[in-house]
Design a protein that fits this description.
Blueprint: H1 3-16, H2 20-31, E1 35-39, E2 66-71, E3 109-121, E4 123-130, E5 138-144, E6 167-173, E7 183-190, E8 198-207, E9 221-227, E10 244-248, H3 256-277, E11 288-294, E12 301-304, E13 307-311, H4 312-318, H5 323-336, H6 349-364, H7 384-398, H8 402-411, H9 418-424, H10 428-438
Parallel strand pairs: 10-11, 11-13
Antiparallel strand pairs: 1-7, 2-3, 3-8, 4-7, 4-9, 5-6, 5-8, 12-13
The structure holds calcium ion.
Amino acid sequence: MSQWKAAMNRRLVAVFLPLLSLLVPAMAGAQIVPICERNEDAAATHDFRFRTVPPPSASDAATNARFSIVAGDADPNSGDSESLWDGRLPRNSDHPDANFFFDAGTAGGRLQVDLGAVFDVQQINTYSWHASNRGPQVYQLWASDGAQPGFVARPDRGVDLATSGWTMIAAVDTRPAQGPYGGQYGVSVVDRTRPVLGSFRYLLFEISPTDDRDRFGNTFFSEIDVCDGRQHVANWPQTPEPIEFVFDTSETPDLQPWVEARLRPVCEQWYPKIAAMLPSVGYTAPRRMSITFRKDMRGVAATSGTRIVCAGDWFRRNLAGEAAGAVVHELVHVVQRYDRVRGGQPNPGWLVEGVADYIRWFHFEPPGQRPRPNPATAHYTDSYRTTAAFLNFVAETSGGEIIQELNAAMREGRYTEGLWKEATGKTVDVLWADYVRSLGGQPADDSNSGNG
Ligand SMILES: [Ca+2]
């Protein structure tokens, strides 16, 4: 029996023995008053800093725990349950796949956490962030060491927790008494009268929406920490999943030999390199993608998410030339994933394509093929090869990590033109003028340009 339960029981056993099973949860719930703090959305940052509630941790006892839904359904746009324990945090108040949340229009559900063994838990901290009704947290927290006879580890919605070996620890409701709900919330369930909250292996969050009338009232939970005063080293991912390329030449079977002999090795060699060239904090590039050749498709190729489609006719004509490089360009788009953050700054299309062509022409293709813009007519917003050549010039002359910085900013929805100056000390127009001069050209005095 846990230390916490033993203490509770000693206090209750003499007087209330017949009612013990009913009273323990009620008394426990009344005893713990969670610390609830809120940052107004405008003041909230990626760090989740609060006055008393500690910041989220990537090395707590939940780091290697298993999270599972035992009642209810995750929203299709929710991140995986790892959003809750990996220590990675949303970038802003509308970053669905960095949070876990129950499905729209449903009454929440039950989330179970199995720590894998009994831990002396000191505090349980939960974090959430959203600009509107998905911000606050409404849940009951139940816990168990799993040793009670008749313990139900995965109690479905109808199962009574109090009679299934679970004890209620706290009832949390961070909804503001008045005013809008938006903001960043941190909750610390801690017993201020003793160092240990209890000895638990299992936790169960009975999560409710913040507003029954709002389909979008299920909270964006960003992280759940279970702190036992020790550091836990993540045991994941020690062996990253293999990268899988699914080639589909069913419409263009004549391309199959080229795909196997040339394209597959190029993808296997270059995709990990591209991912390593475009890193950002907390980001892992997709590890599975499809490359489909279409019989009737105009143009060259296009990418949507992790799906690349290629125009069979164009590839057939360019197998000995640009075909493989065109797919390398599309692989960069798979790694970029600039569509992930909603509500951020829009990314300029010329720069998105420029980064893809920069990697293609200045890393993948032979040096003799590198594009060289005409300084009399070109502009850095021309996209593709011209922007690629400009990026290469800036990367070589600025001495910084300009490509990585631009990539991270675009992926996180925080790209602005000011970033060029922050990263290099020069505006993008001054950099372009430098480049034009390096090509032997005469920079135009066009202070109004460059807003593309
Ligand atoms: Ca954590």
